[in-house]
Amino acid sequence: MTNYNRPQPPQATGVAVPPLHTGPLTFGTLFSRGFRAVAQNPKPLVLWAMLLPLAMHLVFAVPTALYDASGLGDPTPSGVDPAALGVAALMMVSTIIYAVVSALGGAVLQGFVANNVRFEALGHRGTSAELWAATRPLLGRLLGYGGLVLGFAFAAGFVAGILGFLGGLLFVGIAAAISPAMGPAIVAFVLLTIAIGIPLFWFAARISLAPAVIVCEGVGGWASLQRSWALTRGRSWRVVGLYLLIALVMGAAIGLLSLLFWAVTQALVPAASWEIGVTGPRVLAAYLSGLPVSLASAAFLPVLVTAITNVYLDARTRHDPLAASLQQYHAARAAGYQPAQLPDPFAVAPQYSSHTNAQVFPPTPPAPPAPPTPWGSNPADPPRPPAE
């Protein structure tokens, strides 16, 4: 039996489904499974992985709307309005709180969605109660992973801010030196942005499998990052490609929603852009303008996490005998064994990972040899020799 400090999945009460093929998987399959998961199991994924983040986005969008409508850039006879400075301070505090809540809460929701994929691989479509029951024992590890990601994000933001500041100074210097021709300065700024963005994308891809590792292997936050780093070796650009492709689809959705909400804003508060200061129409217009990003971010969270969890399954299938372990698990289930009676098929053998003590799924022992038959019971036996 597996030695993880977490319970086995609860007794199945949802829908039994054909087991999910774990790999090897093509890029198109990885991309399509994210959307298919939401269509096949919409109740838990839409209710918890979409509507809950959306509610958080809508709450934290209020300070942003107040800041956009505060009129910090509006010309006033006495300079900047003190009330606007208070709104700016509120915006700064809410941004920090939003970053912390997004990192920690997002890590938990990623574990929730990863459990949905894990259940599908075990041949079962989990209900909301089952998915939360499987996620709850891992909350500490998921929060630890979220804290590490938050620390990395703040460090990366600090370094990127310094590089951006230096790049801005360089941009201004080049622009001042050759003001008639801004082309080289713009090219230099774009190249600097790409040089900062590519390593960040690559690093995010290397640690992106950590929530799936925590859910399927039961390790801690730091060990999950190490395991994700090992599993994505040679596959990081595949994950980057998934990120970019889903980001393109998400960008198209944001563009369509932006046109829709612009039309709604023009119908409700057509003169909001002409007003000065924090007014009701201006706050409403600013709030509506931020909704497309909030809606798209919430809608694509389960899609992205499902796709990345399938990358984990594909990497495990190529890296260690996960497919054989799952086949033995399904054979035992077909023979009448219950999940609590069986070892965890996602357990990792020590030779495939140095970050867990889990034992590999044991192979089926060979059948004992048949007892010898009495002499003469088989017609093909030669006659017994005479006794001397």
UniProtKB/TrEMBL annotation:
Keywords linked to the UniProt accession: Membrane, Transmembrane, Transmembrane helix
Name of one Pfam family that matches: DUF7847
Region Disordered, annotated ranges: 356-388
Domain of life from the UniProt record: Bacteria
InterPro entries: DUF7847 (IPR057169)
Ranges of compositional bias, category Pro residues: 362-388
Transmembrane regions listed in the UniProt entry: 45-67, 87-109, 145-178, 184-204, 242-264, 284-313
Domain DUF7847: 30-287
Protein name: DUF7847 domain-containing protein
Native source organism of the sequence: Leucobacter albus
Top-level taxonomy: Bacteria, Bacillati, Actinomycetota, Actinomycetes, Micrococcales
